[in-house]
Amino acid sequence: MTLWTDTDAVAATGGRATAPFAVSGLSIDTRSIRPGDLFVALKAARDGHDFVAQAFEKGAGAALVSHIPEGVTGPCLLVEDVLAGLTALGAAGRARARGKVIAVTGSVGKTSTKEMLREMLVEFGSVHAAEASFNNHWGVPITLARLPQDADFAIVEIGMNHPGEIKPLALLTRPDVAMITTIAPAHLEAFTDLAGIALEKADIYAGLTPGGVAIYNADLETSPILAGAAGPQGVSFGKAGQVALASVRLTPSALVATTIMDGDTYHIRLSDAGAHFALNALGCLAVARALGLDLALAAQGLGRWQPPAGRGKRETLLLDPATEATAILIDDAFNANPTSLAAALDVLAATQPGPGGRRIAILGDMLELGPDETALHAAIAQHPAVAKTDLIHTVGPRMKTLWQALPQGKRGHCAAQADDLGAKAHHLVHPGDVVLVKGSKGSYVSRVVDALRHLGHPLPDDTTGE
């Protein structure tokens, strides 16, 4: 199916096409480009113009460029600025869309909620959703520029690191429904307090279409800020919300959440999920309500979702094929802040180890927490789930403050870098153990996950300490 012709793209961007073309997709990376894609030569760590020839070698249908690189003969769309051209394509993609557009932001849970919405909405039609965590000044335009005209629903993830980022992306997206998952201590280096983060996130509502619905978490310290931005037509979810969380039950294999909405009761079962995902699921049901969908069918659709790798995905490690000795790995290594870390520890505490097994946490630094980062790391030691955790290994200078705040018997290794701990992977896990790995992406604690996955057999060695 054709996504953009030269005529459409020229009209959207004001650029000039060197030859007629019709493209079926859009890519910014020659490593994943598909035949027929429009290659967008963005300037990031490398100048995308250096890869235009390679893109055509791999079958690109055209290239969006600000100049034609030497030796390139394929059809190009020439614009003054490539990012501005991509943004214009995104705006045109949104303008011609026939389906409903849902935007999601929040300090925690954006990508997971986006994927929950995808699973829920596929019950009701064709769904286009942001790839991976494409949620910034180029990710949002890419999502919109890739939006098929005939999609029934589009889900756009919007993120930020600094003040002033949300509103332009919201105005570009023009959502029919906009949802804020939660407000938590993330990116505090760029904001003075949680109120500042809430105000920035609430700017997502500035882009709502006429009659659009603003959805927000009712259980937060900053909920009054979100409610004020949402206005009288806003819809809240949570224990104190209009979409009310009646109960949450964690089983060894699933989370079961019960919600009451408009006087009716609905049950949601999420496989291998922690309690913090219950509120995200409620927010998704609030989206279904705003779209006028069958809520029982929507709740059923949510049950297909499972946490992806790096975001709480649970897997079994075969430590010794001869004896079939196993351990459980909870891979939550994609990101971390105090709220999500506390929730992950709750999941660990609710997971039953095997015979003779232990609950073990491997925790990497939480980044971008601002001047209170030391206190925020140390405070994790007081979380109730720590009492049910047998051993905690830490990675990074910030997490060292947590290690120092722990009772002596719970102190595992205190490593400066993830690779230092990864090298000890065979000492970290015994048969029957449940191991949580959690940390900010920049702590590289995912490398410990990789090391654990490559274990071939257990070498029980309980050495701990720095």
Automatic annotation (TrEMBL):
Reactions mediated catalytically: D-alanyl-D-alanine + UDP-N-acetyl-alpha-D-muramoyl-L-alanyl-gamma-D-glutamyl-meso-2,6-diaminopimelate + ATP = UDP-N-acetyl-alpha-D-muramoyl-L-alanyl-gamma-D-glutamyl-meso-2,6-diaminopimeloyl-D-alanyl-D-alanine + ADP + phosphate + H(+)
Pathway(s) annotated for this protein in UniProt: Cell wall biogenesis; peptidoglycan biosynthesis
Molecular function (Gene Ontology), one example: ligase activity
Major site of localization recorded for this protein: cytoplasm
Keywords (A to Z) from UniProt: ATP-binding, Cell cycle, Cell division, Cell shape, Cell wall biogenesis/degradation, Cytoplasm, Ligase, Nucleotide-binding, Peptidoglycan synthesis
Chain ranges of the Mur ligase C-terminal domain: 328-440
Subcellular location: Cytoplasm
Broadest EC class assigned to this enzyme: ligase
UniProt EC number: 6.3.2.10
Residues annotated for ATP binding in this entry: 106-112
Domain Mur ligase N-terminal catalytic as annotated: residue spans: 23-67
Family in the record: Belongs to the MurCDEF family. MurF subfamily.
Function: Involved in cell wall formation. Catalyzes the final step in the synthesis of UDP-N-acetylmuramoyl-pentapeptide, the precursor of murein.
Protein name: UDP-N-acetylmuramoyl-tripeptide--D-alanyl-D-alanine ligase
Species this protein is from: Pararhodobacter zhoushanensis
Source lineage: Bacteria, Pseudomonadati, Pseudomonadota, Alphaproteobacteria, Rhodobacterales
